[in-house]
Amino acid sequence: MRWLLLVLGVAILAAVAAVVIVLQPGPGQKVASVVKTTPAKSTPSAEAPTPKVSEFTDDCGTFETREKAPYAVTGYWIMPKSNPCTWRTQLKEIHDVGGDTVIRIGYGLQFRTVSSSGDILTRDGELDSLYKGCREDGMSCHDAAERDLMKAHPDNRIGRTYVYRTDESFGPDLFRCPEVEHAVRAGKRTYFRIITQPDGSDDSTCDFSRKGASYDLILVAGAENDSLTQLLDLGDQFGMRVFPALPLAPRDPNTEIRANKKHLGTLTTLTRRILQDYGARFADRDSLGGVYQPFEVQMSDTLAANPTLEVYADQHTIVEQELPGKPILISPYMDARKRKAFGQTPKQVAEAFKELAKTGVGIIAPQDSRGTGKVGLFWPDERGAEVDERLRPVVGEATYGTAYHGSTRDYYREMSLAREEMLQAGYQVDLWANVEAFEPSGDQPCAPQGTRGKTDKKRLDQAVTMTGRYVQKVVSYMWSDYMTCGEPSLEKEITADWRRPIAVDAIRTSRDIQDGVEVRGYNLKDGAVSVEWSGGVRDLVVSEVGWLDENPLEELPEGMVTAWVPFDWAQVPAGEWVRITVKGAAGLTSTEPLHVRITT
């Protein structure tokens, strides 16, 4: 099953309660030391759509719908594109490497001023050409809207004006009061005129004649053809799920990382209208996986006071009403840098996870923050090692222990425990890992703006390794342009090397009376587990001495399996770090060893 893989019965999430996997003997047998958790309460999700056909042809060419090189990352962010054939090419490329989920980058609601003639102005006070074409009866759409309001009552006025651009188009369910709300078509652009109350109440009576009042105008610059319909159709073809973006809240001018409370009422109305339209047109579409709220927040111990959480909570309520069963996905970021006053410890981030879950969002996909250099990928016995040279533009020449409060593994582990606590409290929330497929800088920047450069599959494998058994899905920011830039591109590297095993976790556990080690990861079938310590190396072929479970009964990412092999841990000195790798059937070895140790 692709997308959200949830068990059909009661599942127990085994969260390892140590900075790494600390192995201890238990009563009667030697087992891994873990924190016991309670059964998860998540509701089983519907299976991902099945591709309609093995191959389809349209105006953009012929596209196969079979996976070619399934990788551990199964979801990607994508950028809006004006060419519909680009959508098809991107989804095919993503599906080829095992992707079953695409997440749309979105646009923001913006407060704007208008000229004396009612034309929309930019933030710099210039005429905004994007909205210049919106005209009715020889006047601007702003003035036409105010005229229609004044017909109902001469004292009616438009007090505030907002704009929102998108490559989507909408149906009649976007409008609540047709006498003052409608679409305006101008060439290849369709504008949508929405009138709303400033507090977001969106009065359903549509009675504008009772008394004069001030109203908000939302002018949406949309498209002639709906891109979301196109994406959902492609999702049906490839058996993928699509997460369209909700409107981004206007930012606080004094603190850009916070939503501006003055405009939240209008944002709520716009969100409600868009989701009413989605509900009427797409509620039953399996390819609609949910919706994405793109306003990012830092996971910190002060997060509860951030008004952006009000945005999440308000939009969650609307989603429940208009798209029942479809979750909101958010992707906050982490900052583990010790030298920054706002750097946070793993436990502080876990508390932030709880605050986010309380808003009702269904999927929290924290950025691993390695691509920006805000968090490092390292094991506890590597704290004294120099940071990856690619991180030096962000943290300078330092050791991992000096630069960071913890590794991404530490943060995902703590958040998995926080998630389990929230499940017990009745909140239905999944933890995904958003591994960043780029570097802080590079010789060849991948994006049109900024310095972020190409990474490589080895580093991406390392990032996947660090997510451990703690998450339900691994996704990545982003497909275009980070997966496709450079030569060879990261996409080509994955296609050539996708069979390489990735071991993400190992614990000491017994099977019957035999001591052993359980390894979880990808591409472990027909592989051999290698255990290396000061006393030597043991290579243990799973098919000969152990067992493989390809369908473990836990909430694990797609493609993850569990292998067990016998191993006598008594031969390893207490406290020693052991390295575990997996060699696959094709002779490829996992590039990032697991670091584990035992205690007596």
Structure notes:
It comes from Nonomuraea bangladeshensis. The chain is of the alpha/beta class. The protein has 13 helices and 27 strands. It has helices at 84-96, 129-132, 141-152, 227-238, 264-282, 308-322, 346-358, 392-395, 400-403, 408-424, 457-466, 490-497, 542-545, and strands at residues 22-26, 29-32, 55-58, 61-64, 75-78, 101-104, 110-112, 135-136, 139-140, 157-165, 182-186, 189-196, 214-223, 241-243, 291-292, 328-330, 363-364, 430-436, 473-477, 502-508, 516-522, 528-533, 536-541, 547-549, 561-566, 577-583, 594-598. It has an eight-stranded parallel β-sheet. Helix 5 runs parallel beside helix 6. It is elongated and about 90 Å long. The two termini are 40 Å apart. Residues 1-46 have low confidence and may be disordered.
Which structural traits does this protein have?
alpha/beta, eight-stranded parallel beta sheet, 13 helices, 22% strand, DUF4434
Shape: elongated
Q: Give me the Rg, rounded.
A: 26 Å
Terminal Cα span: 40 Å
Number of helices: 13
Uncertain regions spanning at least 5 consecutive residues = 1-46
Q: What is the mean pLDDT?
A: 90
Structure classification: alpha/beta
Question: Helicity level, as a percent range?
Answer: 10-25%
Q: Tell me the major beta sheet.
A: 8 strands, parallel
| Strand tally | 27
Approximately how much beta-strand content do the residues carry?
15-25%
Biggest sheet, strands in spatial order?
14-6-5-19-18-17-16-15
